[in-house]
Amino acid sequence: MEAVGFVGGAISVSAGVPQIIKCLKTKQTKDLSYVTNMVSYMGSSIGMYYGIAIGHKAILLCNIYSMIVNTTLLGTKLYFEVLCTGSYQKLD
Q1: What are the CA-CA distances from residue 77 to residues 4, 37, 45, 69, 72 (Å)?
Q2: Half-sphere exposure (CA, 13 Å, Cβ side) for 76?
Q3: pLDDT (tens digit, 9 = 90+) per residue, 11-57?
Q4: In the structure, what pLDDT confidence band is assigned to residue 1 with cuts at 50, 70 and 90?
Q5: Cα–Cα distance between 67 and 40 in angstroms, integer?
Q6: What is the DSSP annotation of the chain?
């Protein structure tokens, strides 16, 4: 049954991967929200803690994967909006 958890978690977290690919291709990240990214990151952090607390590998690994995806999205947003352009807009 744990395999079902791995597959389900991987599929749902992979929803962010096409966004990463689009950001890297277009070099546009203005439509990404810092707030949404940070809330998702916090949820993944709590889920990771929960996975550790109950000793469930699927929950733990899927939340680690989610944190990697969120960190990558945040990194691309910061890179293209702040480092490449030198401009910074208020958090949306």
Answers
A1: 32, 10, 20, 12, 9
A2: 23
A3: 888 888 898 899 889 888 888 888 988 898 899 999 999 999 999 88
A4: low
A5: 8
A6: -HHHHHHHHHHHHGGGHHHHHHHHHH---TTS-HHHHHHHHHHHHHHHHHHHHHT-HHHHHHHHHHHHHHHHHHHHHHIIIIITT-------
Residue that wins the pLDDT comparison between 90 and 54: 54
Question: Quick one: tokens of 26?
Answer: 């277009």
pTM of the model: 0.78
Q: Report how far apart the first and last C-alpha atoms of the chain are (Å, whole number).
A: 40
**Residues 27 and 76: beta-carbon distance below 8 Å:** no
Q: Cα–Cα distances in Å, from 91 out to 33, 35, 36, 63?
A: 8, 7, 10, 25
* Spatial separation of the C-alpha atoms in residues 88 and 66, rounded to whole Å: 26
